[in-house]
Amino acid sequence: MGTAAIPGPRGTTGGTIDAEEHSHGHGDAPVVTAPSWTDGKRWAWLLGLFIPVSPFVAWGLVEATGLGILWWLGPVLVFAVMPVMDTLIGTDAENPPDRVLAWLEQDRYYRWVTYAYVPLQYASLVLACVLWASGDLGVVEAIGLAATVGCVSGFAINAAHELGHKRDAAEKWLSKVALAQTGYGHFFVEHNRGHHVRVATPEDPASSRLGQGFWSFLPRTVYGSATSSWHLESERFRRLGTSRWTLRNDLLNAWGMTVVGFVVLVAIFGIGIAPYLLLQGVIGFSLLEVVNYLEHYGLVRQRKDDGRYERTRPEHSWNSNNVASNVFLFHLQRHSDHHAHPTRRYQALRHFEEAPQLPSGYATMILLALFPPVWRRVMDPRVLAHYGGDVTRAHVHPPARDRVLRRYGPGTRAAEEGARVFAVRAAADEAARRQAEEEAAAAAAQALVVADAYRCPICSYTYDVAAGDPRNGVPAGTAWSAVPDDWHCPDCGVRDKVDFVPVTEEREPTPAGHASAGSDG
């Protein structure tokens, strides 16, 4: 194979990598020889498993000290300890070299860390049910325990997020199991097939807007995500030509896990635990949504002349390299690379220099988001600077538009400062635009090629005409020209039909397609 010229993010060893080696980094890779490179955070990832055992730790501390306030250990960890750790430990922008990505992704240690989260989270839930049912806890203590368990279930959604993006069927089911504790099984559908397609657009309920506070964002994203996921799954079954009212429906089987699980727990431990089960679920999915709130705040993809939105790029996600939050959240803060390569495993996600950076880690930013005036004071100037002082280019919350324009509009001091900051990174933005134009030109050239297979340039999923995509309503034998234009890659959910690269009879990407795939690195 040849090589593909790929701009290397800061921390890599070079800008050109072997295309075959690079392709292995997008999914389950074959066994490769371990390189001399060492992951400095290898054992730190185990810290992520401290969250699901925190109810056990709280129980032990209460027994040892008699202090009922310690049932609130979970919120203390999330809103106090983790922000302090982010500040004290600082950041780490090092990227794994491209040459080790194949080895890094096939190392099963990393995936077993995420697998272990699920049994631990349910062990803590059962412990909580035992304690709630015992009658030994006062109301405030029981609520504190529910808040701690809610932190466990909220972080479980992050583990489910990591698992749900993978191709392996067992990992996808494990993702649904992790989501069942919060009743948020629809996240499995909406995040992969909705959010990743519509991110940073007005159509995405999980992308927050400049001037929109978290408490305004929360009901919109909860309702919008649920209804969007139902629409997506209904559309899938319409294409299949069968009823959506089946356990093969990813929403019904995911929600069914929650109903069955909660009924069993109430049957065993009594109806008295029901309010606390519901409370921990609400706290859990609210933690997810506050993370959604901060990940794309005010950022927007512009609509092109053909009606499609510009491709998702690093500048459409807020990122952070704070070590503490990153190890507890399995590199979720390297969000731009995740949107570029959704199937890439957490340990291989990379930092992009051109991506907008949060002033601190997610733990600190979650705390700020709960207080909208403080959040706006910290983040609004950063959004303004990101758009060169031109607030009209940002994703502005419609009800707040007049207020935002008065404060940040043309001629204001804030706009001038934003323009000054923006000028510093203008050269990098121009380079990114040129790269996008080259990729678009290569994709246009490939559109003229007729082939029996077409490959996603992000995750290397290959649509084979003979096999089709029956699960998503595209029967075997469906010619590429007959595949619906709104069909998306079933693996990563990021790329549309128009982005796919024709594959020759030898199953090698054609030269233009090769360049297109490479430019995504």
Can you describe what's shown?
52% of the residues lie in helices and 3% in strands. It has 521 residues and is mostly helical. The chain has 2 domains: 42-369, no CATH class; 450-506, Rubrerythrin, domain 2, CATH 2.20.28.10. It has a 3-stranded antiparallel β-sheet with strand order 4-3-5, covered by helices on one side. Strands 1-2 form a two-stranded antiparallel sheet. A hairpin with a 6-residue loop joins β3 and β4. It is globular and about 70 Å long. The relative contact order is 0.12.
What are the main properties of this structure?
disordered N terminus; 521 residues; 3-stranded antiparallel sheet; 2 domains; 5 strands; Rubrerythrin, domain 2; mainly alpha; disordered C terminus
Strand order of the largest sheet: 4-3-5
First-last Cα distance: 17 Å
Uncertain regions spanning at least 5 consecutive residues? 1-31, 506-521
Whole-angstrom Rg:
23 Å
**Number of domain modules:** 2
Mean pLDDT: 86
Q: What's the main sheet like? A: 3 strands, antiparallel
Biased composition (Low complexity): 1-10
Main location: membrane
Region (Disordered): 1-29
Keywords: Cell inner membrane, Cell membrane, Electron transport, Iron, Membrane, Metal-binding, Monooxygenase, Oxidoreductase, Transmembrane, Transmembrane helix, Transport
